[in-house]
Input
Amino acid sequence: MKSYRKEIWIETPARREYRNLTRLLEQAVVESGIRDGLLLCNAMHITASVFINDDEPGLHADFETWLEGLAPEKPHSRYRHNGYEDNADAHLKRQVMGRDVVVAITEGRLDLGPWEQVFYGEFDGRRKKRVLVKIIGE
Output
């Protein structure tokens, strides 16, 4: 069995943002030379997420509205975590959206459904953060 590891560094200008990682992950599969296996992609920061969904701007706006309703950023005093930092809401949003995804690789390609894309969700941006890609297989 072969193994391949890659880091993707992301810095968003906004506090919250969604980035489509699918093309970067497809490139990593090609680089790995693995034709049949699994790809793990996970956010290496506790205020960011990796998830699978549709690449549709209205849906992304709905994520933002829904997440802000669940865990509003302000007032910062609402959260016990906010003392030294002001990002408790980002931790909660990440918890809901998830840390990682695993995608099958079949015949050298990501085995995604017709509308599925892999996204990075940033909930406390404006600094460099890391995404880990680990591919195993033959």
